[in-house]
Amino acid sequence: MADVKDAAPGSAVEPVAPASAGTAVVPSEVIENPGFPPHRPRITDVDPAKEALAQRRVTGLFFISIIGSVLAAAFYIAFPIVPGDIASVRVNTLTVGLAMAFSLLGIGIGTVHWAKALISDIEIPEDRHTTKGKPETVARVSEIFTQANEESGFGRRTLIRNSLIGALVFFPLPGIVLFRDLAPANEEPNSLLRHTLWDKNVRLTRDPDGTPVRAADVVYGSAYHIIPEGIEEHEDYLEQKAKAAVLLMRIRPEDLHEEDYKKSWSYDGIVAYSKICTHVGCPVALYEQQTHHLLCPCHQSEFDVSDGAKVIFGPASRPLPQLPITVDADGYLVARSDFHEPVGPSFWERLGEDGRK
Ligand code: FES
Fold it and tell me: Which residue's alpha carbon is at the smallest distance from atom 4 of ligand 1?
């Protein structure tokens, strides 16, 4: 039996029996489906001048999108990011972002305006039916597509169609240019990410004030954000910090499960791990002292600090690299060496100490 909402406009609908007493209110008389209200032509349907104006607006918006895409690529080249120069980062982000916004808005607003002002807005009801791929159905679908093409003017309004195609072709351009940022042009990524500012006897200092950390001051359950001593003197300070950032935690030595060759990498329960998530490089920052779990807020990877920062949950596939540490003669924590593997996410050419990606 047909439901009211399934019926074509103008058709009569039989009352439906209730599923059970008290669960539905059922009308006792036949209800006439009112159908759609009469169609009201838009100004662009009746005035050719307005239609032409709308057409020019839509075309103009698609051209704005093309200009935005080209400008985004041009700004990226004209205002490069200079390592260590935060002003260049801001100018690059602002100009490329603004141009991409125009590119997106041009396509978005142009498409909406085209649909609202020029594509036919006559609503056509269609009764539900079972979908079967009969030859008549295929023929009908083809007929509908042809009709839609004619009504929307997609085939006929060639200027709008071609400018839309042009906007869509140019739209990925900024993305292609931005791919250049995925890796430096002339440097081998293994050596780039394999070496950080950590080295033998470099002191561990607090981020951001740069004060050195005494082993005796690190209490159980605490966690510190750490950077190498003297990092701020480097020209490419931000890049170096992005690679060398470390999290320092202290847990009870009896809770620590260390592989034999790493037993000298911690100091009295104090361990240091790279802060750069091995999934896609977000900073791991949430430490749960009861469970010794580190959580990456981006995609919820969890690492067990008491067990070599191995992954216990989430999309990361490798443990966080460990920084070998000890103390100097004054009791301050220092690195024993650099990391023994590239920090951060996996990449094609990556080779860790154990030969793993
Ligand atoms: S970047 Fe850390 S889980 Fe994705």
Answer: 299
Q: 315: Cβ below 6 Å to ligand 1? A: yes
Amino acid at 226: I
Q: Is the CB of 286 under 6 A from ligand 1?
A: no
Provide the sign of the torsion angle of the four alpha carbons 316, 319, 323, 326, taken in this order: positive
Whether residues 109 and 214 share a domain: the answer is no
pLDDT digits (tens, 9 = 90+) for 39-82: 899 999 999 999 999 999 999 999 999 999 999 999 999 999 88
Do 215 and 93 fall within a single domain?
no
pTM, full prediction: 0.57
Indicate the residue among 97, 117, 137 that finishes a domain.
117
- Domain hosting 58: range is 43-117
For 49, 126, 132, 144, 172, the CA distances from 129, given in Å and listed in that order, are 42, 9, 9, 16, 40
For ligand 1, the distance from its centroid to the CA atom of residue 282, given in whole angstroms, is 6
Pocket test for ligand 1, best of 247, 299, 311 (most atoms within 8 A of CB): 299
